[in-house]
Amino acid sequence: MSERTVLIVDDELAIRDMLRMALEMAGYRCIEAENIQQAHALIFDERPDIILLDWMLPGGSGLELMRRLKREESTREVPVIMLTAKTAEDNVIQGLDVGADDYMTKPFAPRELIARVRALLRRASGGEEQGRMEVGGLVLDGESRRIIAGDDAIDMGPTEFNLLQFFMSHPERAYTRGQLLDHVWGGNVYVEERTVDVHIRRLRKALQTEAADYSGLIQTVRGTGYRFSSRGL
């Protein structure tokens, strides 16, 4: 496998140095930006495989850059980990809602960061891909990583795709948030359970298509978690 490129976007040189050293020791190639303008240029010139994005940046916020990336077809699939000193739940949820795949609150351990980077890259590349599955006209093709409803392709992020792939492979069974984290994110990755709720919400939104509303396939099971069921159609 070719060397993966990580873009580090942070205005603090000491943090960039720490991240670069840890990532390079783990075998990654690093590029750096200290503001939104530099980051935007590097993203389109270098095409990084994953982005570590600070919340607060000179000339604008990381959320502003995130919105721009998710609007562009060429960059919306790039995994993003938000780096933030903000700990309030509303701020964390806001970052995930805008499109972040994960977040880390400063200060954090480099080993944990590397684990999350590896997990996100594994998920973005499809991990163990599966074949074609269909439920009520909704088709998921694991080899091409496409989702089709009728004649229309459905756009969604890599995490939502992997969630749907897992659900379609394991229908009619309720899973807790913790179990979903283990199966989809990986058991050695430290992600809070509320992250699951954000991605479920984004998956349901993506499944509301012009051809049909498939969001009902993802059912909330009170006191437990979530279940995929064709009875929701």
UniProtKB/TrEMBL annotation:
It is found in: Cytoplasm. InterPro entries: CheY-like_superfamily (IPR011006), OmpR/PhoB-type_DNA-bd (IPR001867), Sig_transdc_resp-reg_C-effctor (IPR016032), Sig_transdc_resp-reg_PhoB (IPR011879), Sig_transdc_resp-reg_receiver (IPR001789), WalR-like (IPR039420), WH-like_DNA-bd_sf (IPR036388). The keyword Transcription applies. One of its GO terms (cellular component) is cytosol. SUPFAM superfamilies: C-terminal effector domain of the bipartite response regulators, CheY-like. Residues 130-230 bind DNA. Keywords: Activator, Cytoplasm, DNA-binding, Phosphate transport, Phosphoprotein, Transcription, Transcription regulation, Transport, Two-component regulatory system. It holds the Pfam family Response_reg. Residues 130-230 form the OmpR/PhoB-type domain. PROSITE patterns: OMPR_PHOB (PS51755), RESPONSE_REGULATORY (PS50110). GO terms for biological process: phosphate ion transport; regulation of DNA-templated transcription. Its main location: cytoplasm. Residues 5-121 form the Response regulatory domain. The modification 4-aspartylphosphate is found at D54. The keyword Transcription applies. GO terms for molecular function: phosphorelay response regulator activity; transcription cis-regulatory region binding. NCBIfam families: PhoB. This protein is a positive regulator for the phosphate regulon. Transcription of this operon is positively regulated by PhoB and PhoR when phosphate is limited. This is Phosphate regulon transcriptional regulatory protein PhoB. It comes from Pseudohalioglobus lutimaris. The lineage of its organism: Bacteria, Pseudomonadati, Pseudomonadota, Gammaproteobacteria, Cellvibrionales. The gene is phoB.
